[in-house]
Predict the structure.
Amino acid sequence: MSGAVLARNTTGTADAATPLDIARIRADFPILARQVNGRPLVYLDSAASAQCPTAVLQAVDHYRTTLHANVHRGVHSLSQWATEAYEGSRERVRRFLNARSTREIIFVRGTTEAINLVANSFGRGHLGSGDEVLITYLEHHANIVPWQLVCAAAGARLRAAPVLDDGELDLDAFEALLTPRTRMVAVAHVSNALGTILPVQRIVQLAHARGVPVLLDGAQAVAHAPVDVQALDCDFYAFSGHKIYGPTGIGVLYGREALLAAMPPWQGGGDMILSVSIEKTTFNELPWKFEAGTPDISGAIGLAAALDYVDLLGRERIAAHEHALLELANARLAALPGLRLIGTAPDKAAVVSFTMDGVHPHDIGTILDSEGIAIRTGHHCAMPIMERFGLPATARASFALYNSAADVERLAAGLRKVRDVFG
């Protein structure tokens, strides 16, 4: 996948040169066998939420039916078994990201909560009047609004690096926006709206040369190619389980241990506590200092199963397969009259955003749905990049490891029907 290998692979088990067996993989995803509006489902909305394979569903069901108990505080067997499974999932995530220690792996509800945790715990302690946080115009709202809130509270300023006409980050402009007042850089690893892969290793190098820590929003990256936080050298990395074939409501914040250790807790209660008196609370050590209340135990176990599934197939093989689908989709869609591709950066994940002359994206999505084809339409929680291109919305098809060339052909045929309907 040219330009799209996000970092070196350290845990993949399959030969990268061997193509994926898509028919066999699709059999692992029960939902793909169903029909929508009397037609076989073509699911092209994995950037919003990927489907779960049977292995994940079974892992969650096994926990629910044989292990369910609260973790960490029980002396009875079920609680100890549940704790072992939950903490085993943390170790699985550590290996998946190649983090140094499980102390650097915090379970959260998803990428949004992870970014809010960093903004509120790290950001509030490091931002003052006149300071700056640097993001880009490619960000999801979840990597904009938390920084707006903490900047407003601190009297700091949120700045955004611009994007070129093909959807690529203007790296020269980004570097120019790194000033002596910059206290934090927070950028997407991959744009959810356009699929642009940002040059995150270079971004980290530029920021670190000025002593500025970096958070990477990896929600759209981890499912599509290898990610190694040590190779990236980032300070924080966030992702969501449901983007990588796991359950909803579970996600991960990786943080460099020295930074996490110095950060105050963001929420209080439950396992983040060692002792409490009316006068004083002593907080737990990492990683539990940031995990207040009963965690999503089944979600963590399901996430671990999803990571096992992805690594069994091989992240480099997945990247190669999805890149082939992207190239095919670009060719088929570019040939359609009146269709405009939005975001054509050289380095992209398997996301295709587009508009059609005279047709609102919502109408595109509705007609495609009548053909059993699921895409996403709207601003994709990325309104600044929509405004950059002068658009209220786009239609977005996003591909995953279970999609096939036949799905691309169905999409192209569906779009030809849209063109026929609107003339």
Observations:
- The domain at 22-52+314-422 is CATH 3.90.1150.10 (Aspartate Aminotransferase, domain 1).
- The radius of gyration is 22 Å.
- The chain has 14 helices and 17 strands.
